[in-house]
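Researcher: Next entry in the queue.
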Amino acid sequence: MYYLKNDRLKVEIQEPGTFYKGSRFDWTGFISQITLDGNIEYCVPERLEEGEGTGGLGFCNEFGIDSPIGYDAIEVGELFPKVGVGLLKKDEDAAYDFFRTYEVSPIEVKINKEANSITFETTNASPKGYGYHLIKEVAIVDNRLIIDYRLTNVGKYPIHTNEYSHNFIGINNEFIGEHYQLKMPRMKNIEVEVGSISSSHDQLTWPSTPDGDFYAHIDWEVKNGTYNWDVFHDKIGAGVREISEFEPSKIALWGRNHVVCPEVFIDIKLKPNEVKSWKRVYEFYQDKEV
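Model: Structure for this entry, 290 residues:
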C-alpha cells in the first residue's frame, strides 16, 4: 500500500498485483480511497455483494474495454497485451469480453515514490509482436488529484485502443438518491439504456435509490463548460469534479444503488514508436455553506 498526503487530500494506492489481480483494470495506480480534509471519503467498491462484479474499486482505469490490443489477430490459446495488466490468454474463438476472467501473465512494474507523487513504469510485448511502454504518474496538488499517462507503441504493429477511468464514487458511503446531483455542462443529450435517471438541462438526479443498474450514453459538446462532470451530495456538502482537458471519444454513465460512475474515454491510435500523453485531473471540494 502507498499513500499520498498533503493538507487537503489523502490518497490510498494499492501495490500492483496485491489487492487487485484481475484481468480487467489497470494494476498500476489503482486508487482505493481518497479522503478530503480528513472527513470526506469518495471511493466505494463496484459491487457490495461478495463475489459479484469484476473487482473494481475507487478510481481505477481500464485500457481496451472494447478494443483490446492484438486480440483479433491471434488464435485461441495465444497471448495478447492488456495495458497495465500483462499478457492475457485468448481462451475461445469469440469477441473479447471485459466481464470475462482471462488467464494473466502479470507485468513487472517499476515504482518510484516521492513526497506528493508516485510513478509506475512498465513495458510489455506479446509473442505476436504487439507491445507498449506505459509511464503513469499519480500526484496531488492541494485538493486536486492529477494522473499523467505516457503510452508508447514499442511493438511491430499499429495499435488502436482506448482508456477511461471508472470512478466508483459514493460520497461517505451514502447511497444514490435525492441528495446526489451529477452536473455535466457539456452534455447535449443523454440516452438511458438501463434503469432510470432524471435529467434537466445539464443536471442528472435520482429521486429515489435505484433498485438495479443504470447505464447511459451521453452526447457531448467539446467546447462548452469548464469541467466535464461534477458529482455533489447536497446533504453532506461535498463533491468531486473532473477538469481533464483532452477531447473525449465517448462518455458513459454507470451506477447502482451505492455508486455513480461518470466515464470519460480517450481514443488511442499509435504507429510503432509513436507516443501519446494525456492527463486526468480531479478536484475534490466541500461547500462550507451546506
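Model: The CA atoms of residues 160 and 269 lie 4 Å apart.
Researcher: Noted, moving on.
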